[in-house]
């Protein structure tokens, strides 16, 4: 058994039943192009191949694992030995692709945020089937007025429909992590509010949720000179907290912010 690298956040899924369930969530057919992030030793890769997709590309940063995958699968997969954070923009095909990933805990939110900000997301991606740390999964699927609601929920719901499928016990990984994981599916929307700059929503929500325990008067002051007038226009109570503002309202704040800058 190859020793996982802690610095790369490697925890390999080794329960065949769970791996099969994850693969099934992709509804893979023979014209699908599949991208798998961080395949590790190839347990999920093998299950995806059984479903006979048109093409399977895997991105593995660890050269040791890339060599193992090459020996195991040969020409049946395309292996890219690279960092997903550097090459995620390169995957554009004639049809939207499906993406699988048992994501490294230490960079999972960064990976998701990068995909969320991708131009023409729904034209390039059909579905994301990702395993996250359970705590992160709860933040992704949460709604306003809950303790887990924040930047991640707002950013992902902007362009994607989100669903938690099931939780995964630490016993199903090697090495065994201290925390539970969850399987999440995300499907890009074709209709969503267009912003001039893909980074505006991230910028605005950063300002609000850096002070999540305080009233929103301060972040509104940071964003707007005439914050009182804008709050009236948006029908926002300046005495509520960031987790009490709906996702739609944050997008409206972004629209006004862009119109003034």
Q: What can you tell me about this protein's structure?
A:
The chain has helices spanning 16-24, 43-50, 63-73, 84-87, 108-116, 121-124, 134-141, 151-159, 200-209, 217-223, 227-234, 247-260, and strands at residues 12-13, 33-37, 55-59, 78-80, 97-102, 125-133, 160-168, 173-174, 181-188. The strands form two sheets. The protein has a seven-stranded mixed β-sheet. With 261 residues, it is of the alpha/beta class. The protein contains twelve helices and nine strands. 34% of the residues are buried. It folds into two domains: 6-188, Vaccinia Virus protein VP39 (Rossmann fold, 3-Layer(aba) Sandwich); 200-260, Orthogonal Bundle (Helicase, Ruva Protein, domain 3). Helix 1 (16-24) packs across helix 2. Helix 3 (63-73) links the parallel strand 3 (55-59) and strand 4.
Summarize the structure.
This protein is of the alpha/beta class and 261 residues long. Helices cover 39% and strands 19% of the residues. It is elongated.
Write the layout of secondary structure elements.
Elements lengths: L11 E2 L2 H9 L8 E5 L5 H8 L4 E5 L3 H11 L4 E3 L3 H4 L9 E6 L5 H9 L4 H4 E9 H8 L9 H9 E9 L4 E2 L6 E8 L11 H10 L7 H7 L3 H8 L12 H14 L1
Parallel strand pairs: 2-3, 2-5, 3-4, 5-6
Antiparallel strand pairs: 1-8, 6-9, 7-9
Helix pairs in contact: 1-2, 5-8, 7-8, 8-12, 9-12
Which descriptors apply to this entry?
Rossmann fold, Helicase, Ruva Protein, domain 3, two-stranded antiparallel sheet, 7-stranded mixed beta sheet, 12 helices, 2 domains, 261 residues, alpha/beta
């Amino acid at each position: 058994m190859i020793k996982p690298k802690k610095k790369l956040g490697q925890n390999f899924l080794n329960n065949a039943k769970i791996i099969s369930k994850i693969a099934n969530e992709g509804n893979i057919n023979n014209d699908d192009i599949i991208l798998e992030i961080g395949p590790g030793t190839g347990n999920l890769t093998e299950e995806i191949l059984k479903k006979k997709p048109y093409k399977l590309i895997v991105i593995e940063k660890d050269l040791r694992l890339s060599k193992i995958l090459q020996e195991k699968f040969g020409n049946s997969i395309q292996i890219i030995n690279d960092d997903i954070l550097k090459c995620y923009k390169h995957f554009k095909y004639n049809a939207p692709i499906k993406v699988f990933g048992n994501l490294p805990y230490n960079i999972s939110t960064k990976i998701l945020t990068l995909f969320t900000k991708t131009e023409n997301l729904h034209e390039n991606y059909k579905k994301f089937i990702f395993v996250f740390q359970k705590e992160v999964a709860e933040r992704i699927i949460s709604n306003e007025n809950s303790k887990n609601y924040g930047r991640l929920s707002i950013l992902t719901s902007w362009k994607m429909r989100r669903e938690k499928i099931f939780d995964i016990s630490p016993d199903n990984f090697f090495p065994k992590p201290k925390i539970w994981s969850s399987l999440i599916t995300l499907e890009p929307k074709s209709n969503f509010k267009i912003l001039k700059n893909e980074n505006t929503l991230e910028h605005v929500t950063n300002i609000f949720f850096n002070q999540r325990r305080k009233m929103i008067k301060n972040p509104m002051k940071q964003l707007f000179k005439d914050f009182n007038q804008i709050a009236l226009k948006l029908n926002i109570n300046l005495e509520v907290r960031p987790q009490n503002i709906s996702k739609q309202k944050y997008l409206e704040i972004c629209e006004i912010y862009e119109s003034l800058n």
